[in-house]
Amino acid sequence: MKNSMTTTANKFITSKYVVSVHIHQVDKKGKRKNENLEYVFDEGELLQKRRSAIEKAQEIMYSFDNDESFSSPSEAHAKKFRNFKGYSIDIYLVIEDEGEQYDYHIYGDEEILYEALEAEAKIFKKEFEITKFIKTENYEDEVVEVIEESLGFFLTYTI
């Protein structure tokens, strides 16, 4: 779901945040088992949807990080990616406007993190009332403006 645009049949603006959880398990022989979970936040104001999605992602991370059955990336690497269980989390902002769907991958892919957060901030500025924005530098030392709330989450928990 990278940052993309696709055509849909809707004629009005709708928005939601989606939290995708990917659980990866590999046994001693290298046999893989994957499970994908999805949580959709489409009720209430956009800022509340954002808060709910971040809260859910943090809740899942805390739960998995404190579950001894899950391996950290370094533990999985040390086990040569066998006999481990790990997870990854992605957060998307999905906007549907006049038949077009825009997906912004705002968490889970470091390469497009700042681009997606900047696009998200532009949407909030244009369509919704929010007052707290902050300027920060991306990986290429370019200044970008993003939503200040929960910025620490996005920058601290990057994969």
What is the arithmetic mean of pLDDT? Answer: 86
Rg over CA atoms, rounded to whole Å, is 17 Å
User: How much strand?
Assistant: 35-45%
Shape: globular
Enumerate the spans where pLDDT stays under 50 for 5 or more consecutive residues: 1-11
Order of secondary-structure elements: EEEHHEEHEEH
Distance between the termini: 17 Å
| Helix amount | 25-40%
The total beta strand count reads 7
Total count of helical runs of at least 4 residues: 4
Summing up helix and strand content along with how strands pair, one would put the structural category as alpha+beta
**Main sheet attributes: strand count, strand direction, barrel closure:** 5 strands, antiparallel
Strand order of the largest sheet: 1-5-4-2-3
Overview of this protein structure:
The chain has a 5-stranded antiparallel beta sheet with strand order 1-5-4-2-3. Helices cover 30% and strands 37% of the residues. The radius of gyration is 17 Å and the shape is globular. It has 159 residues and is an alpha+beta fold. The chain has helices spanning 46-65, 73-78, 113-127, 151-156, and strands spanning 4-7, 14-26, 32-41, 84-97, 100-107, 133-137, 143-147. A hairpin with a 5-residue loop joins strand 6 and strand 7 (143-147). The model is unreliable at 1-11 (pLDDT under 50).
